[in-house]
Amino acid sequence: MDPNNVFDVIVVGGGPTGSTAARYAKLNGIDRVLVIEENSSVGSPVQCAGLLSAAALRETDMEPDASFVLNSVKGADVYPPSGKRMRIIGKEIKAYVVSRKMFDRQLAAKAAETGAEYLLKAQAVGLEDTVLANGLKYKALKIRHEGALKTLYTKVIIAADGVRSRTAKSAGLKPCEKVLSGIQFEMNYKSNDSEFVEIFAGQEAPGFFAWSIPVSKTVSRIGLAVDPKRIQKDQTQNISACDYLNLLLLNPVIKEKINPGILDFVVGGIPIRVMEKTYAVGLMVVGDAAGQCKPISGGGVYTGAVAAKIAAKVAAEAIEKNDFSEKKMSEYEKRWKKEFGRELEIGTHAHDYRMKLTDKEMNELFDTLNDPEILDLIAKYGDMDRPSVLIQKLMLSKHSLKMAKLFGTFIKTLL
Fold first, then answer.
1. Where residue 28 sits, what CATH number does that domain have?
2. What is the mean pLDDT of the chain?
């Protein structure tokens, strides 16, 4: 056996979550760490809207830098089906519009600087347990590298290979139950204010919402995500996410600001339910692969980075104790759930509540929220990564009775 093919940890997937896991594996003292990436370069193709919370940058140890930050955002203009704008003005930068290609590559470079190795154009195609000549149990990861089949051996695998994780499937784990279809155009677009994203709620994007994210004063990313199952249930015709996006471009708020020309095109899946089990013998599943996206916003870089750090720590402990049992790997799930599991649970309830609303009920909801004092609370305590903070502040404010009446059914699901 070629010793060059034997590793301590293999991370499958070179996105932000995978690179963070690899870097922290090295920082935790793990010797040989390999990242395999199925594409020919890290960061391509892009499958993300490219709006990252300030907390997401902090969690990945990245400082906002002109090399990947294109714009900063401090607020949002939210449009319910009625078209009546609700403006939320933040007192500080809430998020950054980034080039995901450059962001991902910088994270990979940081991991490589710590000693993590990268193997590009390598696709995981199978997984087995094996015992090497030294008597130790290893995972045998089958890969296809540049057209040739090859086997790599490792003590621990961290699966960060996206929402349709082949690695998790090979380990016999059930996939995420709910995955939204996302699509986005980057277009010539004259924003009213490039520090504000635009959000469109209602039947224009069944199952989620639509957005306009300003890259600059003259370019924006216009997209949406929809629930394929809901579309099939509600529609007699086969209407795709792309069809809904084309209809969105006719929305008066957007149509008046569009100039001809599509500059870029992005598609991707957004998991809205965490997979039933995120570990197996010698394996942990992190980020989008585990369904750890935030159900309210669809973002996954922050939660993925937190999970990646936890997985790296558990891997280091397992290697030190030579214990790769399912019981040891289960510590990963216990720790990440303790860290942000409740937030995902609250976000899931909020998502489900919102999706049950008719357009009329959605309009009534926004009319109630469109109050200067309530908007001030939203601007002050609204957190893309920790929705529970805002919910608590609203329920303890002088508007508590109004909130209880408005969100009564939703609040009961949290008790």
1. 3.50.50.60
2. 90
